Amino acid sequence: MKLITAIIQPHALQGVADSLREYGVTGLTVTEAAGFGRQGGHTEVYRGAEYRIDTIPKLKLEILAREEDEEALVDLIVAAARTGRIGDGKVWSSDVGTVIRVRTGERGADAL
Q1: In this chain, where does the modification O-UMP-tyrosine occur (predicted)?
Q2: Which has the closest alpha carbon to 12: 67, 106, 100, 85?
Q3: Burial class (CB in 10 A: 0-12, 13-18, 19+), 88
Q4: 3-state secondary structure (DSSP) of residue 36
Q5: What is the rounded distance in angstroms from the CA atom of residue 34 to the CA atom of residue 57?
């Protein structure tokens, strides 16, 4: 089992989610996040005063997947979220030891 985690731009969510559904992914967790990478922050003007915003709003996606689907799902997320501009995000995967569906007690791939 793999946990695929992606940090993406908020505007990319619909395209990524649609692509995941088309592939057959049945579950996705989305969390609002904020951070910075190479793009750093940005400056905004409010009522004539300039403010430095050090973090950029992002979304964190988490998908539990079978090991054999890992590469295809990572490639799919990258393709759907890529704009070619700085700040598009990151995708990584981690090994998962145990997955249990709370409602039924199913384990492993059956819990997906």
Answers
A1: 51
A2: 85
A3: middle
A4: coil
A5: 4
Rounded Cα distance between 18 and 73, Å, is 12
pTM above 0.70?
A: yes
Residue (of 88, 77, 67, 71) closest to 15 by Cα position: 77
CB 39 within 8 A of CB 87: yes
DSSP secondary-structure letter at 85? S
- The b/e string for 11-39 (b: 16+ C-beta within 10 A; e otherwise) is ebbeebeebbeeeebeebeeeeeeeeeee
Domain ranges of the chain: 2-111
| pLDDT, tens digit, 9 for 90 and up, residues 34-79 | 887 777 666 777 777 877 777 889 999 999 999 999 999 999 999 9
CA distance 91 to 100: 24
Pairing verdict, β 42-46 and 49-53: antiparallel
